[in-house]
Amino acid sequence: MSGLDFSCNNLTGAIPESLGKLASLHALNLSHNHLRGPIPASFSNLSQIESLDFSFNNLSGKIPPELVNLNFLEVFSVAHNNLSGRVPDKRQFPTFDISSYEENPLLSGLPSEKNRSQVVETPLPSDETEEKWYEVDGTCFFASFVATYSVVLLSLGAVLYINPYWRRRWSHFIENCIHRCYYFVVDALRKLATNFNN
């Protein structure tokens, strides 16, 4: 067996110490579970291991310093746990990215702290920093508006053309609207003239 992937399950409890006996294992993924407790120091016996992923669990305690003896370890992640103490700084551990340890507020000696003076922040151009997420392309908006409006009008026209009952109802509706608007304007002008004469 060269790899074990138990990720994205609902595993609970502590990580079994006996997993450290699988000396020929090359990859172990326990991420996205509900595991608690410490990382077993017995994992230092996984002499052939190349990838260890404990991210997105509820692990606590320190990162076992014995893990620095894993000479083939290339991928290591304990992100999003409750680990504490100092990150090992020997052999391959200083080469792991800060993302391998993120969301462990009690960890110290992270890569970003060691290389803070070497980090160079590149400012974004002013037009990118001022870009709003709600900005809309005017051409696309206008085109979609016209297309939607045309579809609605064509659908309404097709219904009125096919169904004579709805055609008559629509004619009565338009006629009533015209009469109401006409009499509303006439009444408003009449009242305005009466008030003006008084």
Topology, element by element:
Blueprint: E1 3-5, E2 12-14, E3 27-29, E4 34-37, E5 51-53, E6 58-61, E7 75-77, E8 82-86, E9 106-108, H1 111-114, H2 126-129, H3 138-162, H4 164-197
Parallel strand pairs: 1-3, 2-4, 3-5, 4-6, 5-7, 6-8, 8-9
Structure notes:
Its main location: membrane. Pfam families: LRR_1. This protein has 198 residues and is of the alpha/beta class. It has helices spanning 111-114, 126-129, 138-162, 164-197; strands at 3-5, 12-14, 27-29, 34-37, 51-53, 58-61, 75-77, 82-86, 106-108. Helix content is 34%, strand content 16%. The strands form two sheets. It has a five-stranded parallel beta sheet with strand order 2-4-6-8-9, with no helix packed on it. Helix 3 crosses helix 4 (164-197). The longest helix is centred in the C-terminal third of the chain and has 34 residues, at 164-197.
Key structural traits:
single chain; 198 residues; alpha/beta; Leucine-rich repeat, LRR (right-handed beta-alpha superhelix); five-stranded parallel β-sheet; four-stranded parallel β-sheet; 9 strands; LRR_dom_sf; cell membrane; leucine-rich repeat
